[in-house]
Design brief:
Radius of gyration: 24 Å
Number of domains: 3
Largest sheet: 2 strands, antiparallel
């Protein structure tokens, strides 16, 4: 099968097939465990999508923001009232976020989510002191 793929398809198709079957690209042998069960290494999803990258009080923690930045996102930590009191761009950013998210809470959430203190939107609004 591997020889036929190499003869008829491009290198990308061969590598794709080898990855699906758990083969090494050098020798074309599959790695098996027990009775022919193929072992495939699962690629971890980024930390910002998993529990370890999320802050229990709402939003992302430093590890989550770092993994998002590695994927090209530009996320900044929340701005509290104390930080916004100093003025500048942080105060404007906080005011913009609070206005936008408060409107989302009013229009886009159901009654249960709006009243639930553990919903993601309520956690975010608390974190930003909105």
């Amino acid at each position: 099968m591997l020889a036929r793929l190499r003869a008829g398809k491009g290198q990308e198709a061969v590598q794709s097939w080898e990855l699906q079957k758990g083969c090494d690209s050098e020798d074309g042998q599959s790695k098996t465990k027990g009775k022919g069960q193929v072992i495939m290494a699962a690629k971890k999803s980024p930390a910002w999508t998993r529990k370890e990258g999320k802050n229990p009080q709402g939003g992302l923690n430093a590890k989550g923001r770092a993994s998002a930045k590695a994927q090209g996102m530009n996320l900044k930590p929340p701005v509290s009232k104390e930080q916004a009191a100093k003025g500048g761009a942080a105060a404007a950013r906080r005011a913009s976020f609070c206005a936008r998210m408060s409107g989302m809470k009013a229009k886009l959430t159901g009654k249960e989510a709006a009243k639930d203190p553990n919903s993601r939107i309520n956690k975010a609004l608390r974190k930003w002191d909105c």
